[in-house]
Design goal:
Length: 175
Amino acid sequence: MADNSRRSFIGYAFGGFAAVGVAAALVPMKKAWDPVPSALSSGFTQVNLAVLEAGKLNILKWRGKPIFVLKKTPEMPSDEKRDVVVGDERFMVAIGLCTHLGCIPTYRESKLDFKCACHGGEFNASGVNTFGPPPRPLDIPPFSQNGNIIVLGEEGPEYHKMVAAIKGEAHGTLS
């Protein structure tokens, strides 16, 4: 009888160690199967335009790139082809990388424009290049619009309409 209880104890102990070993192996495997943060950021990003303050640049990250979202003030130039319109408000939504060499332009609130410090490229509040070496306006990310919400990463009818309107321009290349 004593041998049976000792054998049972050793069996249970071995089973316990095996279960701990299996769990220890499964935890890293599960982490390897989970999407990495960079893959998660490449998905869809929702932006609520209703909460944005006019004239203030909002920068968010999508697919590893800065996205500029600017609610325009009446003093800012409107661009029928590039502006996202919600009611009577206009928004500039663009990938915040200079189309010359990929630098991140700085928003100059006093001049209502963007300036790339690397080579002096300038973009107006609609993202259109106005001075310097950038060959085209800031690129527009694919988006869909549902009221005040835009979803970056989805190509909605508003985006396709914008692409069609810009295609006729020599400098209207989208990413």
